[in-house]
Amino acid sequence: MIYKSYLFSLTLRVLGLLFALILLAFGIVNLHTYAIIGGAILTIISMYNLYQFAIKRFLEVDDFLESVKYRDFSRWFVETKGPQDIRQLHKGFNLVNKTIKAIDNERQAQFVYLQKILEMVNIGIIAYNVESGDVLWANDSFLKTLDFPSFKNISFIEKRRPKIYDELFETYHSNTASVTLEMQQETMKVLISDTVFEMEEHSFKLIVLQNIEETLNRNESEAWKKLLSVMTHEIMNSIAPITSLAETLQKNIQETIEQPQTAVLELEDIHAGLSSIKKRSEGLMKFAQTYRSLNKVTHVHKTKIKASLLFSSIDELLKPSLEDKNVILNFDLNDPNLTFEIDAYLIEQVLINLILNAIDATSTVSNPQILVSANISHKGTGQIKVTDNGTGIPEEIMDSIFVPFFSTKKTGSGIGLSLCKQIMLLHGGKIQLQSSEMKGTVVNLLF
């Protein structure tokens, strides 16, 4: 619209100038005095008018560009006076100013928003000019962490804390590094990371500083609490069947003492029961020793053991507990000579955990059954499966079932299955779980 109006006005003035020149040329050729005078006057008037027309619009554009140069977007150009094309031009200028002001306001709002966020985070942040040392921005957390007042140039720190200055501003940390800063009366452990960036032909350095002293102390305390929880859970899992088996043996011996004629003491049963108690006690001792020396938690001591011996030991250990709960525990072994190269004590701990979970899962079903089987998978690797016909695991918590300390039991610690997974990983294997609500669960140990 502006272009059409401008072109129309310009065309009229050019045609007027052309007419005046033709009139002047006619007068000169025909020596017509009035035509020469009239043509000369019209030519001067037309040229002046065309000049004024063009220069006025150039001045308007130059005026607008001048305001842009000095970022004066508050100016308002008159839209109700002057030629139509200039009015349209002013409307365009005002629209540009309005748009730029809106963008600038939005940028300022984002800057204030970002600044408030960085002020609230518990991480120290500082940005400064690498050449001059002038501080572009530093949040309160940075000043509070290092116990500094507000400063405008990093030379302030160089004069008062030269060691901190060297570590923060002279040393480049390409990756996040943990360093110890010497304060006035104490030392502080912090994480430092920094990066250099370019902005308007200047180099700036951004430093991020996080005090991890309190976090380390808090995490250490939490780690000890969780470790004690793990130890308690696993020890109780082993003590419960040992206690039950010991009570059964004690009951049999007591009956033999009181009624020697009718109650015959089966020495083989006593021997088998004591052997199971001894083996589980040794496994419990090894488990405790493993946690007592945390640097050994990543090692397993593998030996070759037949699956039949592993199953027999678990059967002897858990049989008394299962009889009280009317749970049927079966073992299925297609190959009696099937052998695993494993840490028998730790895998026994895993199977006890899984069987006890299966017992809980079948507590509300009729005819509860648990099947433990071992065979060679189609990939040629050994596997042990624990299958139950219990209530199953809800689909919405399947992804969280191996997360440490996640539990759906009111009295559970949530470390049983996570520990089973860790033990399998130490064996270079994995644990897989398939479950359907009200149909049961299958846990597969792949070695």
Automatic annotation (TrEMBL):
Gene Ontology BP terms: osmosensory signaling via phosphorelay pathway
InterPro entries for this protein: BphY/WalK/GraS-like, HATPase_C_sf, HATPase_dom, His_kinase_dom, Sig_transdc_His_kin-like_C
Membrane spanning residue stretches: 7-28, 34-51
Principal EC category: transferase
Gene3D superfamilies reported for this sequence: Histidine kinase-like ATPase, C-terminal domain
A UniProt-annotated Pfam family: HATPase_c
Entries under PROSITE patterns matching the protein: HIS_KIN
SUPFAM superfamilies linked: ATPase domain of HSP90 chaperone/DNA topoisomerase II/histidine kinase
GO-annotated molecular function: ATP binding; phosphorelay response regulator activity; protein histidine kinase activity; protein kinase activator activity
E.C. number(s) listed in UniProt: 2.7.13.3
Ranges for domain Histidine kinase: 230-447
Swiss-Prot/TrEMBL catalytic activity: ATP + protein L-histidine = ADP + protein N-phospho-L-histidine
Keywords: ATP-binding, Kinase, Membrane, Nucleotide-binding, Transferase, Transmembrane, Transmembrane helix, Two-component regulatory system
Keyword Transmembrane set for record: yes
Name used for this protein in its record: histidine kinase
The organism of origin for this protein: Gelidibacter gilvus
